[in-house]
Write a structure and sequence with these properties.
The chain is α+β, with helices and mostly antiparallel strands. The longest helix has 13 residues. It is built from eight helices and 17 strands. Helix 3 packs antiparallel against helix 4. It has two domains: 120 residues, 2-Layer Sandwich (D-amino Acid Aminotransferase, Chain A, domain 1); 104 residues, no CATH class. Helix content is 23%, strand content 33%. It has a six-stranded antiparallel sheet, covered by helices on one side. Strands 1-8-6 form a three-stranded antiparallel sheet. The chain has a two-stranded antiparallel ribbon with strand order 2-3.
Length: 269
């Protein structure tokens, strides 16, 4: 609770507790305090909402968290490469945000949750995001109680879906992205090169039991004609963006994506 009071009241109760334990007096009275704005806290856990919120254990191969600011606090005890043990609380971080009112705080929470990138363990991040964005939670009516999740489970914990064709194409293009020629010899960076023929490459992706054979025919710098499982006619291009990820455009529709490579695994985030 103290981290929320820091944002809404401007005091740190933990610091006060330490000072009182040292024999100091409370520096302010209740009458001196006032609430300013609205604060929300989300607890990011290594757990699987689809599987009954079963805790996860393993290595955080990749961890990207929002930056702390005057209105955003990220309180965490783990770093990329750390193990989340089965013997302790699998919490990754407490994300606390402040806004001038509840709606602004909810909007900021949704945005900051979207900035998380975690590879290696299941998390409740998408569950938290759907919760903050749901009409029922935003309305904060009389039915916002401990039964909220059970009543709206179909919205908050939807069934696992298979990726769309656009997402498959975006992932394949990210795997074939080239920043530019690393040397004067184009054969150093171009695979599947054929004289007087377009450069082609093949990628096999999988999601659960579904396999996707993707063929990319290069038409320009990071521009491709793509087919997925022999269904062609897809036009795509990809470029770097300011967030460190990519802007992937498939048949004229652009979307930002992030990817992570761990060993032979290439994951779309």
């Amino acid at each position: 609770m103290s981290h929320k009071l820091v944002l809404c009241v401007g005091v740190d109760l933990v610091e006060w507790q330490l000072r009182i334990a040292r024999g100091e007096k409370i520096p302010l009275t209740q009458e001196c305090l006032s609430i300013n704005g609205h604060s929300l806290e989300a607890r990011v856990y290594a757990e699987d909402p689809i599987n009954g919120f079963l805790p996860g254990a393993g290595t955080l191969h990749y961890l990207n968290q929002p930056e702390s600011t005057d209105t955003v606090r990220v309180e965490t005890g783990v770093r990329q490469g750390d193990d989340v043990s089965q013997y302790y609380d699998p919490m990754i971080a407490k994300l606390v945000v402040w806004g001038t009112d509840r709606q602004e705080a909810l909007d900021k929470m949704s945005k900051k949750l979207s900035e998380y990138r975690v590879v290696g363990l299941p998390t409740n991040i998408q569950f938290l995001k759907r919760c903050t964005e749901s009409e029922e939670f935003q309305a904060a009516g009389e039915h916002l109680d401990t039964g909220f999740i059970a009543r709206h489970e179909h919205k908050l914990i939807p069934e696992l879906r298979t990726p769309t064709t656009d997402e498959v194409v975006a992932a394949a293009m990210a795997m074939n992205y080239r920043d530019g020629l690393a040397s004067s010899d184009p054969f150093d960076v171009i695979s599947s090169f054929r004289i007087n023929q377009p450069t082609r490459s093949k990628v096999q992706l999988n999601f659960g039991d579904n396999n996707y054979d993707v063929c990319l025919e290069k038409t320009g710098t990071n521009e491709f004609n793509v087919s997925v499982n022999d269904n062609g006619g897809i036009v795509g291009r990809i470029s770097r963006n300011r967030t460190g990820g990519f802007d992937a455009e498939v048949d004229g529709v652009k979307r930002p994506i992030h990817t992570f490579r761990h060993g032979i695994t290439h994951k779309l985030l």
